[in-house]
Design a protein that fits this description.
The chain is mainly beta. It has three domains: 114 residues, Immunoglobulin-like (Sandwich); 85 residues; 129 residues, Immunoglobulin-like (Sandwich). Helix content is 11%, strand content 43%. It contains four helices and 28 strands. A hairpin with a 2-residue loop joins strand 7 and strand 8. The longest helix has 24 residues. The chain is elongated, with a radius of gyration of 34 Å. The N and C termini lie far apart (127 Å). 30% of the residues are buried.
């Protein structure tokens, strides 16, 4: 009997100790306080964004505290003016991967925030922001929030590094793998010479696969489409020169009316070139040199006439080297035939034909091919035309 009582007491003690140890070992989420004060920017602040990689806005708040003595991790949350941050538009960790009670947020990121808020390029709209402090899985949102009026960049904070045209109305059709490449003329500026079909959709992409950004024209402005397929059309089909400047989100469309081989001695186009597709023109004809007192004149260039909003403009395409004044040798390098746009002039910025193309002396006719596309630097070729 005494032995049974003894063992019962031992069992009770063991049970008590087990429960007590279990309570001591039970993990308790450390408590963290909410941020109680937003210090910067002001409660109501305006931000006019600028296109600079280093432009930023400084956000700061009073620190929160954790019960275990460790530092909390912070995130800045952005939302629509009527939002409650339960599904924020954008989340940015504070400086030093969330360790600091301040965040340096670039204008590029703020432009993305504004875009997600539905604010158009160069337009002004409002978002709200607050801060969440966390320790482990425990997160506490500040009861305070600030209001930020953002004037978006006229251009794009993140410029595409390459560009293609696609869509039913483009030369490659709706198959994005057949999209034609633009030429980059300077940072953020692209151009292409291409045919567009009237009333059919076309748009622009920065990749043919993977993550693809899509752009389209709304009037003269470049817009980015975040969902679905963008839509833009031309009312008149034809070959167009499309220039897109993503720095200012602006476009220029010029319809190419004609392209031809311009013979300087005659001061006019003597051989018309027809469009072949993908920014290529080609034409053939007799090229007799002009007999002058000092010798035979063989100077030439290419002339393009474009129209924009009913106004015609003449463009000359000549050598990159404006001082070029010699015939090409039998083994002339490709640089001689590179092409650059110039203001119209009868005698300036011209090439000279090789002697084999003097029709009057050799009987040969010449085939000219002008390449204005993104597959290679703008250039042209001359070859004896097939009779």
């Amino acid at each position: 009997m005494k032995r049974n009582i003894f063992y019962s007491i031992i069992a009770v003690c063991i049970a008590f100790m087990t429960v007590n140890c279990s309570n001591e070992l039970e993990y308790k989420e450390p408590q963290v306080t909410a941020v109680t004060q937003l210090l910067s920017p002001n409660k109501e602040q305006s931000a006019k964004l600028v296109a600079s990689a280093t432009a930023s806005m400084f956000f700061e708040w009073a620190p929160a505290f954790c019960a275990d003595g460790y530092e909390p991790v912070y995130e800045v949350l952005f939302d629509l003016p009527n939002g409650d941050f339960s599904k924020p538009l954008y989340v940015v960790p504070s400086d030093d991967n969330g360790a600091r009670h301040h965040a340096t947020i670039t204008h590029k990121i703020l432009d993305k925030v504004a875009q997600k808020a539905g604010i158009a390029n160069a337009e002004t709209g409002t978002v709200i922001w607050t801060v969440v402090a966390s320790r482990g899985v425990k997160q506490v949102k500040s009861a305070e929030h600030g209001t930020l009026s953002i004037t978006r960049l006229a251009g794009f904070a993140e410029l595409p590094t390459q560009l293609f045209i696609t869509g039913e109305g483009s030369e490659g059709g709706a198959d994005i793998q057949k999209a034609l490449r633009f030429t980059s003329t300077e940072s953020g500026v692209y151009e292409i010479f291409t045919r567009l079909e009237a009333g059919k959709n076309y748009y622009f992409v920065d990749n043919k696969e993977g993550i693809i950004r899509k752009f389209y024209l709304s009037g003269k402005a470049i817009k980015e489409q975040t969902e679905g397929t963008p839509s833009a059309t031309v009312t008149e089909g034809g070959v167009y020169r499309i220039t897109l400047d993503f720095n200012i989100a602006a476009s220029v469309l010029e319809k190419v009316e004609s392209v031809g081989w311009y013979f300087s001695p005659s001061g006019k186009v003597d051989i018309p070139l027809s469009y072949q597709g993908n920014g290529i023109w080609q034409g053939s004809g007799a090229t007799p040199f002009r007999q002058e007192g000092w010798g035979r004149d063989e100077r030439y260039k290419f002339e393009m006439v474009v129209s924009k909003e009913g106004t015609l403009k003449t463009i000359h395409w000549g050598p990159v080297n404006s001082g070029l004044d010699s015939r090409p040798s039998d083994n002339e390098g490709s640089d001689y035939f590179l092409v650059k746009q110039w203001n119209p002039s009868q005698w300036d910025n011209k090439w000279k034909l090789h002697g084999i193309f003097d029709t009057e002396k050799t009987g040969n006719k010449t085939k000219f091919t002008l390449y204005l596309n993104g597959d290679a630097p703008y250039h042209h070729t001359t070859e004896i035309a097939q009779q």
